[in-house]
Write a structure and sequence with these properties.
The protein is mainly β and 519 residues long. Helix content is 4%, strand content 73%. It contains 3 helices and 20 strands. A hairpin with a 2-residue loop joins strand 8 and strand 9. It is elongated and about 110 Å long.
Length: 519
């Protein structure tokens, strides 16, 4: 007899580790940039140059690239900016990692602060967190059928599975060209830029993946004309497109991490030769996992009618998609301009980042606590300090409902801000409103006895001789036709037919006639 098997592709985390890197350095203003009068705002981006695994350790090399917006120390206090970077090298202990493993890294800039030492030197401090993990794919062999000529009874069980159908990395390119509307001056130099992903959605189609969302672009620039006016421009650029994905089916479940991998901005001349076009190219990195949910019939037990047939089983580890859910929380607050800072004339641009403090599995789902960090660049009423920023945090606690979740479940959570509005209440206070979206995918893991082999032997003559040819059997609590048939070496279908049963269900106290070899 031969077991017919089915391979179930399952992914799991092999090993993981985390580290925090504190960086601090004094940075000189480059000679081409003006002196600093006052700092306005800073932003940073983590660049990983090398990730290399050795036995039980991972070597990470990269840099923090930062940009500082400041007011220059001249008569007009014009905005200016400078860029710099802080390199880092870290060796992270990661038990179980091997040189051949592919390392995935989730990077986060937890804190960046820039202070002014003097007009030509800045103090930069930063805290970077890196979460490293290795994921592996393994095949769980499930016996689904038994082939052979030997009379045998087979019991199957339906199991819910989430098998990994597709795992790959891909990119999605976005190219846009923005023309400044009339009334805006031509561009001489861009001081400051913010480019963010908004409302990204993935759609599964047969053989293709649809990607859509928005790019929010803001830039503060020096304009052409008398007095070199300072201007700013902000726009939301919708994008959509399709990616070929062999094997993808509409009914599958996606778990896709999307982020900006590369962006490039270039100022170009329009048809009249004026610098009014902004060319934007953004490359989105997609880390794709696509799961196929299915119910599979696997062999649960077997027994022989004429011979002793033993199923050799061991525990297998299976995975199923418990739920993918999205929730939203509306946050509101008011921020005041700090004492000594200039009053607000107009909000130029606002941005928000989500800082998670804890994600915990509770009875109702995932309890998420953290804060929304909001910062707004504004034009002030003070000619001495024409631009400044106001910032604050809004704490939140939210439960993303996941019925049936247990502490053994695994999950991945994405948080993103949207619908951010910052409105001046007066010259010294702003009203902040935003929505935080939580998207979680949760898997449950369970063990299931899996038949690995079948052993066939001649039945024990003494045991067969002790079994009567006809038995009047009274069902007891917990009995099943399968257990009774296995005990007396009688097919389940024969018991049903003799006792005129339409189903396999029996009740305690029910009388059954068992006839050995009747059919």
């Amino acid at each position: 007899m031969e077991l017919i098997r089915k391979n179930i592709h399952i992914d799991r985390t092999k090993c993981k580790a985390g580290t925090q890197i504190a960086m601090e350095d004094d940075i000189n203003i480059t000679d081409s940039r003006p002196d600093v009068y006052q700092l306005v705002q800073e932003q940073g981006e983590i660049i990983l140059d090398e990730i290399r695994a050795v036995s039980d350790h991972v070597y990470v090399k990269g840099k923090l690239r930062f940009t500082v917006l400041y007011l220059s120390d001249d008569d007009v206090r014009r905005p200016a900016s400078m860029e710099g970077s802080l390199p880092f090298e870290e060796q992270v202990y990661m038990e179980g990692v091997a040189p051949t493993d592919g390392i995935s890294v989730k990077k986060e800039l937890e804190d960046l602060s820039v202070g002014m030492i003097n007009s030509r030197k800045l103090s930069v401090q930063a805290l970077v967190s890196l979460n490293l993990y290795v994921e592996e794919l393994y095949d769980e062999e499930a016996a689904v059928e038994l082939a052979g000529s030997e009379p045998v009874e087979v019991c199957t069980k339906t199991v819910d599975l989430a098998s990994l159908a597709i795992q790959k990395k891909d990119i999605f390119r976005i190219r846009e060209e923005i023309e400044l509307p009339g009334g805006y001056p031509n561009i001489l130099e861009i001081f400051w830029m913010d480019c963010r992903l908004m409302d990204v959605q993935m759609g599964l189609m047969d053989g293709r993946l649809s990607v859509q969302g928005q790019i929010q672009l803001f830039f503060l620039y020096e304009g052409e004309g008398e007095g070199r006016p300072v201007a700013w421009y902000e726009t939301n650029l919708p994008f959509s497109g399709l990616l070929d994905c062999q094997g993808l089916k509409e009914r599958m479940a996606e778990d896709i991490v999307c982020g900006i991998g590369h962006k490039e901005v270039e100022v170009k001349a329009d048809s009249d030769g004026e610098e009014r076009l902004v060319s934007l190219e953004v490359v989105l990195d997609l880390d794709m996992k696509i799961y196929e949910e299915e119910q599979a019939e696997i062999l649960f037990d077997v027994y022989g009618v004429t011979k002793e047939i033993e199923a050799v089983s061991e525990m297998g580890k299976l995975k199923q998609l418990l739920m993918k859910n999205t929730g939203k929380s509306r946050l509101t607050s008011r921020f005041k301009v700090a004492d000594g800072l200039p009053q607000i004339q107009q909000i130029c641009h606002s941005e928000c980042s989500i800082q998670l403090a804890e994600v915990r599995i509770v009875e109702e789902g995932l309890r998420i606590t953290g804060a929304a960090a909001v910062r707004s660049l504004y034009a002030s009423m003070d000619e001495e300090i024409p631009y400044d920023s106001i910032a604050g945090t809004i704490p939140f606690s939210y439960v993303l409902e996941i019925p049936g979740i247990t502490p053994e479940c695994t999950y991945r959570l994405e948080t993103s801000p949207s619908e951010l509005t910052v409105t001046p209440v007066d010259a010294g206070e702003v009203d902040v409103k935003l929505t935080v979206t939580f998207c979680g995918i949760v898997f449950s893991h369970y063990e299931q006895p899996m038949i690995r082999d079948i052993r066939i032997s001649e039945p024990d003559p003494e045991k067969l001789a002790s079994l009567p040819g006809i038995v009047a059997y009274i069902a007891r609590e917990g009995d099943s036709l399968w257990d009774i048939g296995k005990k007396y070496y009688v097919p389940v279908s024969q018991i049903r037919e003799i006792n005129e049963l339409s189903t396999d269900e029996i009740r305690p106290g029910e009388k059954l006639l068992i006839v050995k070899g009747a059919i």
